[in-house]
Automatic annotation (TrEMBL):
SMART domains: AAA (SM00382)
GO MF annotation list: ATP binding; ATP hydrolysis activity
AAA+ ATPase domain residues: 31-209
Entry protein name: MoxR family ATPase
SUPFAM superfamilies noted in UniProt: P-loop containing nucleoside triphosphate hydrolases (SSF52540)
Pfam families: AAA_5
Length: 285
């Protein structure tokens, strides 16, 4: 597969990549390296992983990072309620003659293992593994994730080593709420995902909402571009552009004038301070 062929496949499933995204994704596939996508929220980082999975007809496994996430939430855990029920059943069946060692060994078998996203990705590969918003995790989790990505294997003390027969396609995303350590970035190919240019944003809106006219899509894209230039708490992403287009379509509007923009601003800006700043700036006409 060439970069152009990959771009065509992504386009087929509804993702319109620019040359930079296409090249980064192609190299990640060809070099068998994780792809670290960083950028503002709403620029299509997560959507790239979804589109790759669709384009390549592979399952998508998603690990959503959050503050305090640890290995038991990302890799595996034991099903303690089922283990307890199993132990009680053994005790009842043994009628006081339970072998403690045999009982303990029977508790830590595959039937009681809860596979979390990382373990599932290693076992079910080939697949696309999305590690979403890795910047929300802490340093310890980064170190753990780096080890898994380096070896494509994990060791479960009770079961032994589990290794991916084929390394999963890994996409990591970051909104850059904090700096991710260099060690993790060095393991990956890096790409900064920016907001789309005007022409591509118009194409994205019209692809997502075919009923929206070229004129209205252009007006929305221009207005959103102006909003992104303001000092907002949360600049609008492509998802907000699409939401704005849906709102205007639901109202039956074919033009984005100042009055319509003002009354539908809640579709694109999610903070009161941002809406006030946008109206005061005069960018809405």
């Amino acid at each position: 597969m060439t970069p152009d062929e990959l771009a065509a496949e992504l386009d087929r499933v509804g993702y319109l990549p620019d040359a930079g995204v296409t090249t980064a994704a192609f190299l990640a596939l060809r070099m068998h390296r994780p792809l670290f996508c960083e950028g503002e929220p709403g620029t299509g980082k997560t959507s790239l992983a979804l589109a790759l999975a669709q384009a390549m007809s592979l399952p998508l496994i998603r690990l959503q990072c959050h503050e305090g996430i640890d290995a038991s939430q990302a890799l595996y855990d034991w099903d303690f309620p089922r283990q307890l029920l199993h132990l009680r059943a053994l005790e009842a069946a043994a009628d006081g003659a339970l072998d403690p060692d045999a009982a303990e060994a029977s508790l830590y078998t595959r039937r009681f293992l809860l596979a979390r996203p990382l373990l599932r990705a290693l076992e079910e590969s080939p697949c696309v593994l999305l590690v979403d918003e890795v910047d929300r995790a802490d340093d310890e989790f980064e170190a753990f994730l780096l080890e898994v990505l380096d070896t494509n294997a994990v060791t479960i003390p009770e079961l032994g080593e589990i290794r991916a027969l084929v390394p999963p396609i890994v996409i990591l995303t970051s909104n850059r709420t904090r700096e991710v350590h260099d060690a993790l970035k060095r393991r990956c190919l890096y790409h900064w995902v920016d907001h789309p240019d005007l022409a591509r944003e118009v194409a994205i809106i019209r692809r997502g909402l075919p009923g929206v006219s070229e004129r209205l899509a252009s007006q929305i894209a221009v207005a959103v571009g102006k909003l992104r230039e303001l000092d907002l708490l949360k600049p609008p992403g492509v998802a907000e552009s699409l939401d704005w287009a849906r709102a205007l379509s639901a109202l039956g509007r074919t033009e984005l004038d100042a009055e319509t923009a003002a009354v539908t601003l809640g579709a694109v800006l999610k903070y009161r301070e941002d809406a006030t700043r946008a109206v005061a700036s005069g960018v809405l006409g």
